[in-house]
Amino acid sequence: MDVLVTENITGPAMDALRANLDVAFAPDLWKQPDRLTQSIASARGLIVRNQTQVTADLLAAASKLQIVARAGAGLDNIDVDAASRLGVVVSSTPIQNSISVAEMTLGLMLSLARRIPRADRHVKGGGWARSQFYGTELFGKTLGIVGFGRIGFLTAMRAQAFGMQIIAYDPYADPDSLLIAQAGVRLLSLEQVLAESDFVSCHLPGGKETRGLLDYDRFCSMKPTAHFINAARGEVVDEPGLIRALQEQRIAGAALDVRQQEPPAPGPLDSMDNVILLPHIAAFTDEAQDRVLASVCRDVAAVLAGRPAASYVNFAVPARVDR
């Protein structure tokens, strides 16, 4: 077997890959760890999204593996250090879906500001009580971006068109960067961003450094009229703390595309009118997924043909390690 695909990853680029290589397409294999361990033993390439847990143990069972390609931006589900020790290339697509996520962020911001989902449900239920749905404009409001990478930058540029003031927190951002200047962003501390913003949009990566960073106390430091948006990683938010802050009206509302547990168990957020919940779809546009899949398949085909990967995380060509 040349390539093992363990999630439902389809499209023209995958069709082309399957026409040229021996590709085993098993979209539900990520749910079956024992069978996955058996199947990966003969694979030279592995393509995953975010559900397959590519652990050190799984990698150790893949004696022929040369590349793990992640169709998406995050690497939370891949043990990159273990892959590197074994000489396995890890590639990902950190920029290909950025525009889609930025556009979704603006869509969620508008939906919260104008109460669009609530008004939609009201009218579909036979109502026409217009006075219940006074909203607020984005114009003149302050957007606080927590995590100012590529998606944060693209979000800021789009928010500029609405006449918003942009502030951001990112301990790794270069204050002299041209992107900071172009976006008209003021870099502040996390505490200042939360306190001054009318809308807070999270664009942080997952990991030990950010896990639970946005907790009850930090939500309480926001304006009671402010809204929170997360289209990044669910683990960054302490969900019980967010629920408590919403219940106590410490903030006005929230929109979540990602959750601490996916899929989430039923809970209090499901019945809150001031909360918008989506099933992790910010990157799910035709255009973004075509770009993501093309990049992933291109890297897999290249590495298996003895050429370097373009979007590599650790190194471009496999370093052969007997295992």
CATH-level-2 architecture of the largest domain: 3-Layer(aba) Sandwich
Q: How much helical structure, as a percent, in the residues? A: 25-40%
Biggest beta sheet attributes: 7 strands, parallel
Per DSSP E runs of 2 or more residues, the count of β-strands stands at 12
Structure description:
By secondary structure, the protein is an alpha/beta fold. The protein has two domains: 3-96 and 286-304, NAD(P)-binding Rossmann-like Domain (Rossmann fold); 98-277, Rossmann fold. Helices cover 34% and strands 14% of the residues. It is built from twelve helices and twelve strands. The chain has a seven-stranded parallel β-sheet, with helices on both faces. The protein has a five-stranded parallel β-sheet with strand order 2-1-3-4-5. Strand 1 (3-5), helix 1 (12-20) and strand 2 (23-25) form a beta-alpha-beta unit. Helix 1 (12-20) runs parallel beside helix 12 (286-304) and helix 5 (98-114) packs across helix 7. The longest helix is centred in the C-terminal third of the chain and has 19 residues, at 286-304. The two termini are 18 Å apart.
What is the strand and helix layout of this fold?
Elements: E1 3-5, H1 12-20, E2 23-25, H2 33-39, E3 45-48, H3 56-60, E4 67-70, H4 80-85, E5 89-91, H5 98-114, H6 116-124, E6 142-146, H7 150-160, E7 165-169, H8 178-183, E8 185-187, H9 190-196, E9 199-202, H10 216-220, E10 227-230, H11 239-247, E11 253-256, E12 275-277, H12 286-304
